[in-house]
Design brief:
Blueprint: H1 24-37, H2 44-66, H3 69-72, H4 84-89, H5 95-110, H6 122-147, H7 150-161, H8 176-195, H9 201-218, H10 227-232, H11 243-252, H12 263-267, H13 275-284, E1 295-300, H14 304-307, H15 315-318, H16 332-345, E2 349-356, E3 359-366, H17 379-396, E4 400-403, H18 410-413, H19 417-422, E5 429-431, H20 434-444, E6 451-454, H21 460-471, E7 475-479, H22 483-492, E8 501-504, E9 516-517, H23 525-535, H24 550-559
Parallel strand pairs: 1-3, 1-4, 4-5, 6-7, 6-9, 7-8
Antiparallel strand pairs: 2-3
Helix pairs in contact: 1-2, 2-5, 2-9, 6-8, 11-13, 20-21, 20-24
Length: 568
């Protein structure tokens, strides 16, 4: 039996998405009051809801910025990526927003005058700044050091430190007890200022939103604070922490405990000795190129709906299998405008990365959507972008660049042949990856199959599959209306195998076939490029598939531990 520490779990932990019903009374009371009084300025229920939405927006915005690798790649402090385990662990990050909303409601019921604060009070902004420095900062410092004692760290605070790469959502990845303590930290200056008679709605909104902004800054894993600022005004380094400063706390754990002001670490003698030097190093190298990737997968956007599942739009949607979410439809017009901007102004950009053993693999994206590849007037521009990416990879020293999906379209650039012929001295190897795609499909077919019905039969991939299967004496029913293309493929087969290739023009021909395949059964072009890199092959893989290399590529993939998802 596992004994859970008191107050380590959330009261609504088992509610799932139903936890948002806790906002229901606030929403109902807010709209009822608005209907009755028509005064939104004194409607504290709607104010709490609006503040929660704005706070959520700040965390989401910081997460988006942190994951915009095309902007932040050379400013990242910890170089590893955020894995699915961390995303799942931080899934309920917004629990503390619900807690704060409920606590704020309770405070208004205990002190009704808090619901009738004026809109603006200049003295309140000054007062809350003083109370923040005098109460919130030292209170957080004491609480934080307390949570780093053995028992409290083991049973409570270790959850917060279990996120390997700090992100804005990491702020919410903590136990119920911790957030009760942090509620006192953020609430004390607000209540104190209001008790002094200087409270206002603007003061509360400004303080809470700036508080969240600075917390997300420290957890962003992106160094944006210039070291020259501290060199020009040295005292500032004690008044404002940096992402590097807080990351040192997360990695070392025994120093840099402050909320936002390192002054209190200086008073407590807990400033990490490398804080300023590391910040200067990170800030100084921010504009320089980082590690050169060994392998690049050159992708493109599929459609407008899928573009909203990019990690820098929503890492939560990006971490789940793609499905159309109704909740994303309100964002469709924004995504459409972004698509138009990308069409007119954007260049190939860094989309994501991962580390395989000691190698850095990156995914770059051509700023074009799927439908644009079928517009005749857009093809030249698309090829220019692909060529630009290939030449950039060549200049950087990338070993292999693999073309994804429509980027290797035969009608567009001959499966990459266009670029290899135009630039014969390329050091980077250009790979379409279709050889492994064919190998995966072929090895998913049971060995005892005697007949296969093949759609997309005269495509580049269909041709290779048909020629391979006929050599195995498997009868291939090739669905195609293009007799000339079928006959051309048939002539490529050995004379004794040509009879195993049969042209059919209707799906009914498959009624007696026990094994049917379609295009796109497996998408392995990315893995094909990885295998090309791992094997150190020095040839380009462009144009028509070399049927003789299918088994070789398959064996190489298995050697490096790459297997289809369906393989046992």
């Amino acid at each position: 039996m596992v004994v859970v520490a008191p107050l380590s779990s959330w009261p609504w932990e088992n509610l799932g998405s139903l936890k948002y019903l806790l906002y229901g009374p606030l929403l109902a009371n807010g709209f009822y009051s608005l209907y009755q009084d028509g005064n939104i300025l004194q409607n504290w229920c709607l104010h709490i809801l609006l503040l929660s939405i704005l706070r959520m927006g700040i965390h989401v915005a910081w997460s988006s910025y942190s994951n915009m690798l095309f902007l932040t790649r050379n400013r990242r402090i910890l170089q590893q990526g955020v894995d699915f385990k961390q995303i799942d662990m931080e899934w309920e990050w917004d629990n503390f927003l619900i807690l704060h909303s409920l606590m704020a409601s309770m405070m208004v019921y205990l002190f009704p005058w808090l619901g009738n604060l004026p809109l603006w009070n200049t003295k309140g902004l000054i007062a809350i700044l003083i109370l923040h420095v005098g109460i919130a900062e030292p209170l957080f410092y004491v609480f934080h050091r307390f949570f780093h004692t053995h028992y409290l760290f083991t049973h409570y605070h270790s959850l917060h430190h279990s996120s390997p790469v700090p992100q804005s959502f990491t702020a919410g990845n903590a136990t119920f007890l911790e957030h009760l303590a942090w509620s006192l930290v953020i609430g004390a200056p607000i209540l104190g200022t209001s008790l002094l008679g200087y409270g206002s709605t603007t003061m509360i909104f400004c303080y809470v939103l700036v508080f969240d902004f600075l917390r997300c800054l420290g957890l962003s894993n992106v160094e944006i604070v210039p070291h020259r600022l501290f060199e020009a005004v040295p005292i500032l380094r004690y008044l404002l922490y940096t992402p590097t400063y807080h990351t040192l706390h997360r990695t070392e754990k025994g120093s840099n405990f402050c909320l936002f002001m390192p002054l209190f670490d200086a008073i407590g003698n807990t400033v990490h000795k490398n804080s300023w030097e590391l910040h200067k190093e990170m800030s100084s190298t921010a504009g320089k190129n980082g590690k050169v990737p060994d392998f690049v997968f050159l992708a493109h956007v599929v459609d407008i709906t899928s573009s909203m599942h990019a990690p820098f739009v929503s890492r939560f949607f990006a971490s789940r299998p793609f499905v159309t979410k109704l909740s994303l439809f309100p964002l469709w017009p924004i995504a459409f405008i972004v698509m138009l901007v990308m069409w007119g102004r954007s260049k190939p950009f860094l989309y994501s990365f991962y580390n395989l053993r000691d190698w850095l693999h990156q995914t770059w994206a051509v700023p074009r959507f799927g439908f644009q590849y079928f517009l005749p007037f857009a093809r030249e521009g698309i090829n220019n972008h692909i060529e630009e990416a290939i030449l950039r990879a060549d200049k950087l020293g990338v070993k292999v660049i693999s073309l994804a999906a429509l980027n290797k379209n035969e009608a567009l650039n001959g499966g990459g042949t266009l670029f290899v012929e135009k630039h014969p001295n390329l050091r980077v190897r250009v790979v379409h990856g279709n050889t492994l795609t064919a190998a995966v499909i072929l090895n998913e077919i049971p060995k005892d199959v005697k007949e296969v019905f093949l759609t997309g039969a005269t495509s580049k991939l269909g041709r290779a599959i048909a020629l391979y299967l006929c050599r195995r004496k498997v009868r291939v029913l090739m669905l195609t209306l293009a007799t000339e293309r079928f006959e051309k493929i048939q002539k490529e087969a050995p004379t004794e195998c040509q009879s195993y290739l049969v042209q059919v023009t209707k799906y009914q021909a498959a009624r007696n076939c026990k094994y049917t395949m379609s295009r796109g059964v497996v998408h392995a072009c990315h893995a094909g490029g990885v295998v090309h890199h791992l094997e150190g092959w020095t040839h380009h893989e462009v144009g028509a598939l070399d049927v003789d290399r299918i088994d070789l590529v398959w064996e190489a993939a298995l050697k490096h531990g790459l297997k289809p998802v369906s393989s046992k």
